[in-house]
Amino acid sequence: MFGATAATTTSSACAQSARQSSRVLSSSLTSSSSTSSSSESSLLFSSLRNTHRHRQRNASSPSSSSSSSKKGNVILTSAKLALIPSYSNLPHPAKTAKGGEDAWFIKPDVKGGGVIGVADGVGGFGDQGVDPGLYARVLAFECLKAHQVSTNPLFGGSDPKAMILQAQKETKLPGASTLCVVEIDKSGQLRAANVGDSGFKVIRGGEVVFESTPSQHYFNCPFQLGYMPLSADADDANECAEQYSFKAMEGDVIVVASDGVFDNVFNEELVRVVGNSCSQGLSYESMAKCAEDIVLVSRAHAEDKTYASPYSLEAEKYAKETGTKVKVPSGGGGGLFGGLNKMMGKGGGGGGKMDDITVVCAFVGPTAEAQGEIMKSVQLAAGLYDDLMQARNKAKGEEAKTLRTVQLRKQMDEAFEESKAKADMAKKQEAAAPSEFSKAQIDAMDSATVRRLLQERGLPTSGKLERLKERLAGVKRM
């Protein structure tokens, strides 16, 4: 343990109900995967199963003994501070069959530092026959890959925005996603980059001391990464990724999450949940509990149609400012007693927002003393990396289609530009060419001659003689 955090009690009834739903979901996923271990759902849900099982799996891990033998070497080469993360995820009820559309990654390091991130696939692409979750998972994998390259001494220091730029470039698929990346560098500095309405918060001493803000075009329309050669609507990370820097301290708890959390949980409640989860001190296990508890509270609020959620309040504000009505995906409206409850301070807002919910929780610990805890996170990260690798391999066929589409579109664009250039050149040549008949010749022609010459050239012959002569004067000698 690396310190304790005091907190008040959260709403146990909602949390207990949500925990039961989560256990039922976990049970059904385990049963499903046993009948078709090679199926798509097995791949996409493996990370969720890890979330519910990793405590038992790591309890028997020999990481503590192995880390002590390496401690002397680590002290010589490591940063003083390290991220010790865990995670939890719960898909939207309507998207459980495909594992939801969020993705996440963790990369703890026994030498200190570390990086974590969350990507939220844009669900609207599902209407086009595209799996937004696949795009998000490949984006997460490519971000991890970019981090591996950036931390190589040959390539200089790591940079979250550079990771996002590289990940966007290498995710050559239809779809779109938000992405938030947070790292602790070797100097103990928190550095982050964010695109869209996923985000992060730093909790210290019972309060949020630093946080990201949603980056969006307008309310409920966040900036979104996509493969730019394929989608003209994709935002460029180089232009829209917001960067953050903050001095981390031992004992900080960092929460990185999709908007399924921040649309439903206010900062004050988030701090209470983190405090309760970490009441016995900071450890890998407390981070696992913290992430799970945040997910459960978020889902409980998402299901509450009378809850005045952050999302419903923002929707109400946006509606007043623009005159645009926004429907809250929970069902909203507050029901028969919604207005009365709101007046009495008992909620009654537009309701929570139902969505995929993903949370990565990490505490900042002393690298040398926290080797056992770091190794538990490293083992969890290995399984998650395998899941993302499988998603990356699965996407190869779709990526080949995408590249063919982009190449075909490029060829069509080039052919169109070539045709347009030829047409423009022909017009210029025609404009520069001399007239077939001089003005004196045309003035000397009678009506029958003018009409015959126009007819021979496929031009209209009806109208007054003066108009017909003007038409014949426009005929160029080619």
TrEMBL record:
Residues 442-476 form the SAP domain. GO terms for molecular function: metal ion binding; protein serine/threonine phosphatase activity. Residues 87-364 form the PPM-type phosphatase domain. Residues 1-71 are annotated as: Disordered. The keyword Manganese applies. The keyword Hydrolase applies. Coiled coil: none annotated. InterPro entries: PPM-type-like_dom_sf, PPM-type_phosphatase-like_dom, PPTC7, SAP_dom. SMART domains: PP2Cc. Keywords: Hydrolase, Magnesium, Manganese, Metal-binding, Protein phosphatase. Its EC number is 3.1.3.16. Belongs to the PP2C family. This is Protein phosphatase. It comes from Bathycoccus prasinos.
